[in-house]
Every structure is written in C-alpha cells, then in structure tokens.
C-alpha cells in the first residue's frame, strides 16, 4: 500500500465514507490489512508465529489488531493505538414510537456528541445484527448499512423557541428523536430482515446506530482541509494502518490496535480497559518461545503511541485555548499533556518522540488544556495502568471535535503517517 500523498488522502476519505459504524470501520481495517498480506488469526486458538510474519485479528467485531513479528523475540513491542468508535446515537430496544401520525425511533446518546450538529441532516442506520446460527452459542453476525436517506432529527422553528431556550443543549429523550416516516404500519425488524434478506423470526438481537449520509470532502481555497464525520478517531485509525503496512520490519514486534468503546470509557471486552490486549501481547511472546519472565521484560522495554485527535486553536473562540500551547492546523502532530494524567504523556515519552520527529524532519506541537477547563482523556493512561507499557498521547489538531461533521488539515494527516512510520522503524 505504498501511495502518494493524493492517493493517501483520497483513500482516507473513502475509508471515512465506508466506515458507517465501529463494526464497519473494523471490517474495512481488516480488509486493508488482508490486502497487504496480513494473515488472519483467531483470539481463541493456538498461534504459530514466524519472524517478520504479518498477522491480524478482530475482537468482538469492533476491535482490530494488526502486527508484524520482529527479528528479536526478546525485544519490546512498538505499539500504536487508536479507537474505532465515534460519538452519536444508539437505537434502543423496542425502538418504534408512533405518535400523532409520526413514526420515530427511540435512541440514546453514545459518548459525547454535539447534539445540535445532528439535527436537520439526512441520516441512516448501521451496525451489526445477530441471526440464528447452528447453535445457541454460535449466532451468525451480519453487518447492516441501510444505504439510503432514511431519517432525520428536525429542529424546532425559531418562532417557537423562547429566548431562554435558544442555545441550550437539546433534551436527548424528548427533543432529539429521529423521524423515520408517517403512519402506523412499521416495525424496525421488518426493515432489517428485508435489507439483510433473512427471515424476521431468525433475528435475535442487534447493535444499531444512526450515521450521517453526508460524504467526506476536501475544502478550503487550496484544499488544505478535509471535513467528515468520525475523523475522531478514524483519522488515526487510517494513519496507523498506512504506517504499519509501509514500515520496514525491525527487531521489535510492531503492533497497531484500534479499540472500540473509547468514547464510553473502554470498559468492555474489546475496549482498552479489558485484559484482552495484554493477553494478545502475551500470546505473541509465548508463541516465539519466550517464558513468563521474558514476557514481563518485554513489557518494560515497550513503548506505545496512543493516537487520538487533538484540539486546534479555534479562530472564533481564541479564549478557549491555553495561552502558550495553541496547536494550529497543518503545522504538525500534537503531543497532549495534562498534569492530572488524563493523558499518559510524561517527559520520557516526550523525549523519545521529539527525538524521532527531529531525526525525520517533523515539527511537533504541544497541547495543554487551559488550567480552568477540564479536558478529555483517551486510551493511553488506561493501557499504561493495565499493562505497565510506557505511553504517550498524541493526535492531529482539528476543529468541531464530536460534531457530526468535523474538520482537520490534510498536511497533518500526511505528517502523522510519516511520524508513525518513523516510530515503527526507530531504534
């Protein structure tokens, strides 16, 4: 997958458009790795791994792990981690609401979306559906993408909005429910069965989400920006995939992981807070003939980049930025630091990454929250706590984070790939 800059960015926009849920972004990531010669493994099987062998596995349909075995089985791991999920709306059980002639779906908020940004846009439904399998413990999973403009969340006319109501966050239960049609004769499972060409009685359960039908696009007088939903954090997923595929093999085993459920705390089997990832690392180590002590030694020789999007200074809200650390679009990847350790970054981590960047002609920026604002967090500190692996939190600067339509710089994406590739190949 050696591409030029234009091909990389075109591929990113296509990836964003196809990745309509965390299940689809994981499937698309798996296809990219498979097409690059990575061999699929299963989590619950014995592995026989070879030096410079390329492998990948999918965990619970929504976490992707790809790795290239290093030449030195005692060396530490070089890891880049990101997440496959984005904020939005999840469809509840028994979702159909019929009132005053309207058909609506009952939803709940997933993560922390900017609710107002979801209003008055064409939306549809995506996710996974479980249907009857050969046994009760082996249901079949099917991915669903209803590929048409299906529903919308209509806003209230300004004439009906009191002055004290304007600008307030909508009530998620009463004011942010999507409209899907008119009438009384509608059941969601009937639509799902028709889309998937399955018997409605075979549908057992599903995890379904709303998604925007608007396409990713370039914008700006010189095409310097791109705009799309789910840039946080599929921008980093795509960068990590491109970098591991194009990196030269090294003594260390190179790993890329895209976890699910970062937006809701990571406390799932496929999330960064589970025991799963350390088990994967251990299986990689043991399959190379290492013992338990060798594996522990590897952990403390390892280094991980936690890659999640960062905040750029906003031209309309300058006062929201730190006085001396103000990341700008298209001026390079951002190291995120926090005294309360919501980010895993410390001076050791900064030293390592600054040296790699300097050796490869890459400028880095720094992000700190204003001291009177509480910022976000990501997977870095979680992985460091659960595994003992040193972490640093980085990301590309962007605007409108958690909107249904986010904005980032094209040059930053290319610089991030260059930085990640250099990290995988560094000594």
UniProtKB/TrEMBL annotation:
<protein>
    <recommendedName>
        <fullName>M18 family aminopeptidase</fullName>
        <ecNumber>3.4.11.-</ecNumber>
    </recommendedName>
</protein>
<comment type="similarity">
    <text>Belongs to the peptidase M18 family.</text>
</comment>
<dbReference type="Pfam" id="PF02127">
    <property type="entry name" value="Peptidase_M18"/>
</dbReference>
<dbReference type="GO" id="GO:0004177">
    <property type="term" value="F:aminopeptidase activity"/>
</dbReference>
<keyword id="KW-0482">Metalloprotease</keyword>
<dbReference type="InterPro" id="IPR001948">
    <property type="entry name" value="Peptidase_M18"/>
</dbReference>
<keyword id="KW-0862">Zinc</keyword>
<keyword id="KW-0378">Hydrolase</keyword>
<keyword id="KW-0031">Aminopeptidase</keyword>
<keyword id="KW-0645">Protease</keyword>
<dbReference type="InterPro" id="IPR023358">
    <property type="entry name" value="Peptidase_M18_dom2"/>
</dbReference>
<keyword id="KW-0479">Metal-binding</keyword>
